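Narrative of activities, Objective 1.

The group set out to show that a structural description can be obtained from nothing but a protein's sequence at a throughput compatible with the screening campaign. Below is one input-output pair from the validation batch, recorded exactly as produced.
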Amino acid sequence: MLVLVGFVIGRFIGTYFEGTFLNYGQAFGLSQPVVLDLGFFILTFGLTIQITIASVIGVVIALVIYRFIR
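Output recorded for this entry:
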């Protein structure tokens, strides 16, 4: 759970320092969502994960905080 918080913190850092090297990264996932149309029920699946330097910094911060909490 704390790692996910780290990713959110990293995303916040990345948006705060937009245009810097912190936003350099890679996106993984589906470029187009997958749609399952059953006629009466439509499901849309999609997932994209964007890992940036700021996200990695956020995860490291979360892990350091975890070490102090534990």
